[in-house]
Amino acid sequence: MRILIVGSGGREHALAWKLRQSAKVEEIFIAPGNGGTALEGTNVPIKVDDLPALVAFAKEKAIDLVVPGPELPLVLGIKDALDLEGIPCFGPNAFAAQLEGSKAFAKNIMQEAGVPTAAFGVFEEFSEARDFVLDKGAPIVVKADGLAAGKGVIVAQSTDEAIQALEEIMVQKSFGDSGKHVVVEECLVGEEASFICFCDGHTVKPLPSSQDHKAVYEGDTGPNTGGMGAYSPAPVLPASRYDEIIESVMQPVVNLLGTKDKPFIGILYAGIMMTKNGPYVLEFNVRFGDPECQPLMMRLDCDLADVMMACVQGKLAQTPLPIKDETTLGVVVAADGYPGSYPKGMAISGIKEAEALGNVKVFQGGTAIEHGQTVSTGGRVLCVTALGADLAAAQKRAYEALKFVKMDNAYYRKDIGFKGFK
Ligand code: ATP
């Protein structure tokens, strides 16, 4: 089997690493890839949003399966473009990808499917959104409808703050077209967890729960990032509740998209708030989370290529999804200053030594290999991921491994996994 992975983060390194373990996979290409994916396959200099070039490459190389990592190519319709050429794609079509690409679409689908989610309104007119905020009161959540790199959500503690967010999004148009519509919703209280499932259009099979750490500083303080670390399972979402979430959230959405003749294939990721009234959906993503993917790939105890092909062929029900019983935990090493401005081009060493500890894998994100040396190219550089018998053991091992990794101007959180001990 010949596979093309699209993307360049730690998530794509983890997918390439796992897919390379399959005896059926002969060749892996990663577009555009990074310093880590270069060790698992061949990097190809094509951007994730250059659909014509990606499709042409997949045709030229007789690719058997395309695996888009990030949401952008999915929302732009890579699956639909590949369908026209008869090339299988592990990911949803552009219609279903709106579950992530449009928060208004996702809320309307949830409402239609009867999925528990915060009460909401969708607005195109600033004055109507403002009146809704004044009517509901604070705290209240304001969300730009479209993709905004995780920055389009404001959890407002006062109506003034909410109205200011509406002004920025709807009047000053700080998110461009992504803010043409705005979702305003009730503020939920609870702890968050990620519930990530494989889907084949009909059947849904869950990976174990996980939890990421979005805030840049310890104790979940400071600005939000793409994710500073993650671990699996998340005790706040125990296995005893998976069936309930499949029945109340995942299956109704997949069934509804099926009846619209737009089957959902690929990864359906629900960001769940565990409230005192049960699990509520905060958001859907239509791909693996980064960094959740890294610890999840370390727990997956089967051939990922088999599972992905089963999804594409509608055979997920017959395909087992064994998972290692242990806990995995990944700590992101970032460049100091991220998510603000940060230096690039730092030399990285000690990855082999960290991995030599055993049950450790260093997934690379913002890296490249220059003249034989691995250097940083982005804000989130590495994800040092470890497996242990329980959360304490996985955490201990990840931080032990981190001591071997050397990079100037490195920053990482010292408390990844802390919520799991509560
Ligand atoms: P991501 O960076 O995960 O893509 P996003 O921009 O798609 O995020 P959401 O996940 O919808 O946006 O919201 C971001 C964060 O805002 C959530 O992780 C949660 O912490 C908070 N949030 C969103 N909706 C609510 C809500 N209704 N009540 C309380 N907090 C919320």
UniProtKB/TrEMBL annotation:
<dbReference type="Pfam" id="PF02844">
    <property type="entry name" value="GARS_N"/>
</dbReference>
<keyword id="KW-0436">Ligase</keyword>
<comment type="similarity">
    <text>Belongs to the GARS family.</text>
</comment>
<dbReference type="InterPro" id="IPR020560">
    <property type="entry name" value="PRibGlycinamide_synth_C-dom"/>
</dbReference>
<dbReference type="GO" id="GO:0005524">
    <property type="term" value="F:ATP binding"/>
</dbReference>
<dbReference type="InterPro" id="IPR020562">
    <property type="entry name" value="PRibGlycinamide_synth_N"/>
</dbReference>
<dbReference type="InterPro" id="IPR020559">
    <property type="entry name" value="PRibGlycinamide_synth_CS"/>
</dbReference>
<keyword id="KW-0067">ATP-binding</keyword>
<protein>
    <recommendedName>
        <fullName>Phosphoribosylamine--glycine ligase</fullName>
        <ecNumber>6.3.4.13</ecNumber>
    </recommendedName>
</protein>
<dbReference type="GO" id="GO:0009113">
    <property type="term" value="P:purine nucleobase biosynthetic process"/>
</dbReference>
<dbReference type="GO" id="GO:0004637">
    <property type="term" value="F:phosphoribosylamine-glycine ligase activity"/>
</dbReference>
<dbReference type="InterPro" id="IPR011054">
    <property type="entry name" value="Rudment_hybrid_motif"/>
</dbReference>
<dbReference type="InterPro" id="IPR000115">
    <property type="entry name" value="PRibGlycinamide_synth"/>
</dbReference>
<keyword id="KW-0658">Purine biosynthesis</keyword>
<keyword id="KW-0547">Nucleotide-binding</keyword>
<dbReference type="Pfam" id="PF01071">
    <property type="entry name" value="GARS_A"/>
</dbReference>
<dbReference type="InterPro" id="IPR016185">
    <property type="entry name" value="PreATP-grasp_dom_sf"/>
</dbReference>
<comment type="pathway">
    <text>Purine metabolism; IMP biosynthesis via de novo pathway; N(1)-(5-phospho-D-ribosyl)glycinamide from 5-phospho-alpha-D-ribose 1-diphosphate: step 2/2.</text>
</comment>
<dbReference type="InterPro" id="IPR013815">
    <property type="entry name" value="ATP_grasp_subdomain_1"/>
</dbReference>
<dbReference type="GO" id="GO:0006189">
    <property type="term" value="P:'de novo' IMP biosynthetic process"/>
</dbReference>
<dbReference type="GO" id="GO:0046872">
    <property type="term" value="F:metal ion binding"/>
</dbReference>
<feature type="domain" description="ATP-grasp">
    <location>
        <begin position="107"/>
        <end position="313"/>
    </location>
</feature>
<keyword id="KW-0479">Metal-binding</keyword>
<dbReference type="InterPro" id="IPR011761">
    <property type="entry name" value="ATP-grasp"/>
</dbReference>
<dbReference type="InterPro" id="IPR037123">
    <property type="entry name" value="PRibGlycinamide_synth_C_sf"/>
</dbReference>
<dbReference type="InterPro" id="IPR020561">
    <property type="entry name" value="PRibGlycinamid_synth_ATP-grasp"/>
</dbReference>
<dbReference type="Pfam" id="PF02843">
    <property type="entry name" value="GARS_C"/>
</dbReference>
<keyword id="KW-0464">Manganese</keyword>
